[in-house]
Amino acid sequence: MIKRTYIVSSSIAMSKRYCRENKNIGFIPTTLNHLVTELYNHPVFFMENEKTAVLNQHQQDLNLCKIHQSLNTDNYFYEAMKIRGNRGLVLKALLELKLSLNGADLSGLKLTDKRKTSSLIELYQAYEKEGAFDYSKMLFSVIERVKTSKYDTILQDTEFLFISDVEMIGFEKSLIELLRDKTSVTAFEVTKSELKFDALTCSSAITKANSLISSLKWMKDHGLDSSNTKLVALSYDDYAPELYKLREKLPVYLEHGIKCSSFSFFESFMTFLSSRSQTYREHDLFLQKLESTVRMRTEDTSYTELERKFYQMTLLHIRDLKGANSEYEDMGIAIDPYELLVMELEGLRFSASDLDLEESGLTLSRIEDAYALNSLNVVILGASHANYPKKLKIDPILKEDERESINKSIDAKLSVKPFYIEDMLDKLISNSSGKSFLIYEGHSTETGKLTVPSSFYNKVLKAKGEEITIENIYNLCGVKERYVDDLSSQGEFLNVFSNEGLKKNINIQNEKLYSKEIEDIDYAINDKFRTRLSASSLESFYKCPYMFNLKSNLGVYAADLGPDDRSSWLSATERGSFLHAAYEFALMPFIKSKKVYKSYLKGLKEKDLEEFMEQTMNSKVQETDELLFKDISPEIAEHIKKSELLEMRENLESFIEKELENLSEFYPIELEYKFAYTWKVDGTELSFAGSIDRVDTDGKGNFKVVDYKTGKNYFKTTKEYLFDVYDKKYKTHKVYFQHALYTKAMLESEYKSDIKSISAGYYFSSERGEWATVFHEGDTPEKKLEGILKTYVKEASEGKYFKNATQCTFCEYKQLCAGKQLKRKHIAFPQLVNLQKAVGENDA
């Protein structure tokens, strides 16, 4: 009897291709999730299986809405779950918890944040009470059946071959161990790749189309064709449309299909959709009219077969949304059917069969669908840093330290680190027994600037014994030569390309202007009054009270909704923290010594600066002993990290030079000076805590309080009003309170009896900030701050927190802010006017 062999991988497309290429009778392609589902639904268990209906995304969301409405309003997740996208994240976290608990009691849960602990227990219990049938029930049913030998007869003629590393959540790993005891389970072996760099060609192009043309030319020059060469894209959806255009010239196959948005009729329909949403404002009527129109288009033979297929898929989404819309209304939940449809339709894609593409010819695959497969030769498209390597983040609902706490406190099996298949590109190339071609777009056609290549090229340079520098990577890929060649071959095409790249915004329509009446979307209500403040929290209140309420009152996180792919090692904030730490290490030896400041600075050598940089790199968080900077983004290209460290090393050197250049009778006596004090304002006691970057004195009772800024200096002179500055570029006000809070802190400190005068301000320690020091005009900023605090007490105690639309551009809480707030900039809400007046210079 022929045994059935399930070919399991992280991608169903990879499993199918393995079966297709090996042509072995009895091979069944699957993923772990599909395998569990198939085992659960085996005909033998038809009578005992729970009868269920598959829920569409709206039905799942409605279940979450019911759970949300059952929560106490002070639940940690309550505010976040008002947003549909966040509900999806919550569902993912709840399912992962369920897969990791197997019915275990959550009552013993212990997290650092007690509020989040009780909130998570309440949320999970509500989810369990809802009792929706999900994947976890199938998994635990299958596990129990395997344990009790109910699958023994089935498994005796079955074996499992894992051809790639597979993410296993919770008890999925236990299932595999149980199956291993019953039958043959061959696991994917993670081995170090042995790359054949002598058979690897690196190149570049200036467009996606040119990348394909160069790849085909390379294949032709080496006598290769589609029968012996794999074509793999690191950004599949960027290359699929380009390859599809070549289908008349050569047979092509798109393994993952192509997005519907790649076709001109998609944009036309989206424009139509937008106009209908403006014509029919009532949701039911909008969906009813839309359903009628789309249904007719599915049957209209004047449209191509592909267009009718698109309308058939669209019709299903409209009907699902139409069915859910009334339930949303009954629950009092506001949704925008137009926006939901736009998001859903933008994700639609045609399969290869929809496109009438046969499984032959030049096949384009995603790297995650091909990396574990053997091949003779391989072409890899788009090896730029923007798409490889990818930095994956763990689900923001359950952070890494919280997952560890959950596992310890209730014996769960949550994954602590995000699942990531390391070195997919390495494995893909090492699985090729012949030649490999690696190409990326070396220039941005929009800006004309050079783009950052993938860190994979570092390995190529290392293998060649060359220094890892960006210049050597550009030489390796022939960036300059390819740019000239591609440019000369483009001709008029470049002009057309630049125009085609400017897509019109199909959503811009004439809309009715918002009224000036205050609506409930303009503010939040919260009777909680916060008395514990910091400079940043108080500044956030004056920038946008609504954001302050979310962040400081409710403790709502700004959801991280995706991977963070970036072409730099440190973010702007992390870079600022690094430099602050470097300055501290540089000046701390002076404070501990009895030297004259000038002598100390002049005595610093190159090796001292290197030591300060090394100390900064190895500095740790005191509470957790974790490395502050060294472990940030380990996958970042080494030449990028080296370049940034060199730049910050130069900044530190400039910092020392500027200290010498601007020597006066003042010298530092405190660095990262911690403080805590209370301040009674209009009968309300407010408390403040924080740390001051630097305190200087002349030893005669005169003090300077300094806060480092590594960004741009928005002030015009060295002495001016610091509380409020207008940013002309973004038409927004920036508020600064540190100088005043720190002045008050010094007046409450152990130095208070020595103080005759205090100057407070900012030191913009960078070329961008022109190494400027800006101090407050006048030596009593704390008096102005007292007036600001009185306004805070009055406005915050009323319990309404208004949205300030002038702050939306860079706000990390955009997705938690209902309504199109930017369109309400013209409304002068009294609270926002009062706050602006309070920080204004005329009121000083």
List low-confidence stretches: 491-514, 560-565
Distance between the termini: 91 Å
Number of strands: 23
Number of domains: 5
Concise summary:
The protein is of the alpha/beta class.
Describe the model.
The chain is α/β, with parallel strands linked by helices and 844 residues long. The chain has five domains: 4-51 and 138-186, no CATH class; 57-132, no CATH class; 197-257 and 355-500, Rossmann fold (3-Layer(aba) Sandwich), CATH 3.40.50; 261-350; 524-556 and 568-631 and 642-843, no CATH class. It contains 29 helices and 23 strands.
Question: Tags for this entry?
Answer:
844 residues; alpha/beta; Rossmann fold; 5 domains; seven-stranded mixed sheet; PDDEXK_AddAB-type; PD-(D/E)XK endonuclease-like domain-containing protein; PDDEXK-like_dom_sf
